Amino acid sequence: MRWDELAGDDCPIARTLSVIGDRWSALILRDALRGVTRFDGFQARLGCSREMVSRRLANLVEAGVLERKPYQAHPERFDYLPTDKARALGHVLMMMAQWGETWLPTPTSRPLERHHRACGHSFTPTLVCSECQAPLEPGGVDYPGAAARA
User: Fold this and answer.
1) Letter string b/e over residues 112-125, b meaning 16 or more CB atoms within 10 A of that residue's CB
2) Mapped to the 3 state alphabet, what secondary structure does 75-130 carry?
3) How far is CA 110 from the centre of its chain?
4) What is the rounded CA–CA span in Å between residue 93 and residue 107?
5) What is the pLDDT of residues 104-148, one digit of tens each?
6) Helix 39-46 and helix 23-33, axial crossing angle in degrees, nearest 10
7) How confident is the model at residue 3 (pLDDT cuts 50, 70, 90)?
8) Under 8 Å CB-to-CB from 53, ≥6 apart: which residues?
9) Contact call for residues 123 and 135 (beta carbons, < 8 A)
């Protein structure tokens, strides 16, 4: 399957990857959710080419993940602000970070501190069943019918 065909795939993972499936898009989204809003800020933090940042920002805007708001007319410049779609993807990135902390630690890495605003406690992200509230363990979920769709 070609990269540009993922957006129309029946698989929700493929469709999600069509939006944030390359490293630069995911890292731009990470930075946007941490408060970076300007092109130069993304480019400086990522250290990749201006063309790469420009293309990825355009894709994220087109997908409705970031919203472009002008902040200067001459020359024309924009803030790139997270939308509700971006904030929802923040949960995906949080679980990716948790996976990286568990399975890809480095000698100098430390787990991210996460504080739940509602209760003020530090926490470790976990997935729970919406019905019984039990933690979802690796290998503990079935996907009936998914094999037939694949």
Assistant:
1) eeeeeeeeeeeeee
2) CCEEEEEECHHHHHHHHHHHHHHHHHHHHCCCCCCCCCCCECCCCCCECCCCCECC
3) 20
4) 22
5) 999 999 888 999 999 999 999 999 999 999 999 988 999 887 665
6) 120
7) low
8) 24, 28, 39, 42, 43, 46
9) no
